């Protein structure tokens, strides 16, 4: 069975509750579409737990990108040289990370050993930008953190930029591929519903072959999960 969730945002309690609900078998896969960290206090615990579970397939989110950009120089010893290398671009990324809820993750990283920090950094650096999945029923899926920006139906996936998968805000009415579903997080479904004039809800939003699954866990909404084999929705509150 294939499952997908996104935007756990440091809610280790909900992540472990979800694992209990779906009861992953060795042959199952759970795709986590980025933003496992930040906002909540236990993002590092979430990442370390994901690392220990071979059935979990991580996809890069913009919050993991902040970590990957900042952690290497944050782990350096403070010297005259390291201070000189602390340029405006590094400080700008750090400021953006903190402004977007990175403070709890930074505090949690400080409590970890050097080996744990390095393991997390390597894990994040190895995350893919997207995943293509096909289930036995013949349904095909493209999974990414934020959707696909600058879309063209004939454009190969490898030709898209990193930002196209991490920062876009898809129009739920947009048509992508006719033969596959696009599943993404990043934008809470309540915001998408508000934009569409729909009744507000923190549950998965299906619009044709688009499926938005960020149910607002980072803002005390639900953690949503979709089984790709059955299209069943699973929630943890």
Describe the protein's architecture and organization:
By secondary structure, this protein is of the alpha/beta class. The protein has one domain (2-63, 125-236): Metallo-dependent phosphatases (Purple Acid Phosphatase, chain A, domain 2, 4-Layer Sandwich), CATH 3.60.21.10. It has eight helices and ten strands. The strands form two sheets. It has a five-stranded mixed beta sheet with strand order 3-2-1-9-10, covered by helices on one side. A five-stranded mixed beta sheet has the order 4-5-6-8-7, covered by helices on one side. Strand 1, helix 1 and strand 2 (29-32) form a beta-alpha-beta unit. Helix 3 crosses helix 5 (88-110) and helix 3 (62-74) crosses helix 6 (114-125). It is globular.
Number of helices: 8
Superfamily at the CATH H level? Metallo-dependent phosphatases
Q: List the secondary-structure elements in sequence, H or E.
A: EHEHEHHHHEEHEHEEEE
Task: Report the structural category.
Answer: alpha/beta
Would you count the extended β strands for me? Answer: 10
- CATH-defined fold name: Purple Acid Phosphatase, chain A, domain 2
Number of domains as seen in the coordinates: 1
Radius of gyration: 18 Å
For the sheet with most strands, the description reads: 5 strands, mixed
Low-pLDDT windows of residues: none
| Beta-strand content estimate | 15-25%
CATH class: Alpha Beta
């Amino acid at each position: 069975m294939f499952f997908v969730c996104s935007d756990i945002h440091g809610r280790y309690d909900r992540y472990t509750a979800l694992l209990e609900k779906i009861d992953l078998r060795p042959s199952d896969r759970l795709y986590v579409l980025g933003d496992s960290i930040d906002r909540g206090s236990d993002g590092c615990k979430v990442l370390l737990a994901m690392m220990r579970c071979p059935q979990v397939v991580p996809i890069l989110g913009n919050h993991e990108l902040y970590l990957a950009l900042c952690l290497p120089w944050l782990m350096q010893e403070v010297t005259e040289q390291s201070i000189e290398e602390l340029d405006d671009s590094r400080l700008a990324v750090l400021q953006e990370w903190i402004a977007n809820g990175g403070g709890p993750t930074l505090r949690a990283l400080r409590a970890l050993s050097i080996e744990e920090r390095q393991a997390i950094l390597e894990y994040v650096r190895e995350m893919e930008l997207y995943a293509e999945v096909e289930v036995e029923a013949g349904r095909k899926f493209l999974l990414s953190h934020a959707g696909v920006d600058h879309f063209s139906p004939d454009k190969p996936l490898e030709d898209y930029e990193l930002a196209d998968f991490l920062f876009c805000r898809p129009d739920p009415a947009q048509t992508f591929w006719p033969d596959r579903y696009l599943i993404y997080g990043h934008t809470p479904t309540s915001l998408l519903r508000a934009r569409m004039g729909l009744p507000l809800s923190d549950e998965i939003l299906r619009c044709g072959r688009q499926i938005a699954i960020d149910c607002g866990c980072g803002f005390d909404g639900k953690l949503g999960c979709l089984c790709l084999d059955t299209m069943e929705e699973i929630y943890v509150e």
